[in-house]
Amino acid sequence: MLMCRTGMAGGEGAFIMVTFWLVEAMARVSLILLCNEILKYADLKFQIQAAKYDVPIPNIWKLALSHFDNILSYANHLGMFSEEVAISGEQMGNAPQAFSHLACVSAAINLGRIGRVGGD
Fold first, then answer.
1. Which residues contact 55 (CB under 8 A, 6 or more apart)?
2. What is the maximal distance between C-alpha atoms in the chain?
3. Cα separation of 71 and 89, whole Å?
4. Are strands 84-85 and 14-15 parallel, antiparallel or unpaired?
5. Which of 2, 15, 12, 31 is nearest to 104 (CA)?
6. Residue 33, Cα to own-chain centre: how many angstroms?
7. How many C-beta atoms surround the C-beta of residue 37 within 10 A?
8. Model confidence over 5-42: pLDDT tens digits?
9. Collapsing DSSP states into helix, strand and coil, what is residue 69?
10. Which end of the chain has a smaller Cβ tally under 10 Å, C or N?
């Protein structure tokens, strides 16, 4: 979970929606890196540009999947998410939170789609 200190009094938790956005961004980056890996063999000029982005591609997707599985553990007994989660795992804020669920669905769809493209 992503945490931030605001300096305001009172407890704040991690926004679940933003954490799902992180997972989705990591999945999309792994797809871009996979495309760069494929293209760098097609064109020598591109190979020079792509070489500076030499990152283990499957590891980013697997890390995103691991984060996704971890976030799912913060759902309540009905599989519903609140707006925020405390460090202790307690749900905070509005519950159920539609934006958290939309971000969850979007991250799941993109993880599945990109996982099929990458062969994992």
1. 33
2. 56
3. 10
4. antiparallel
5. 15
6. 16
7. 15
8. 555 556 678 888 898 999 988 888 877 776 666 666 65
9. helix
10. C
Residue type, 12: E
29-85 pLDDT tens trace: 877 776 666 666 655 555 545 455 554 555 777 888 888 998 888 888 888 888 888
The torsion angles phi and psi of 20, rounded to 5 degrees, stand at -65, -35
Q: Across the beta sheet with 84-85, what order do the strands follow?
A: 14-15, 84-85, 91-92
CB burial string 76-106: b at 16+ within 10 A, e below: eeeeebbbbbbeeeebbbeeebeebbebbee
Question: Would you give the DSSP letter of residue 53?
Answer: G
Contact call for residues 106 and 24 (beta carbons, < 8 A) = yes
Tokens standing for 103? 């971000």
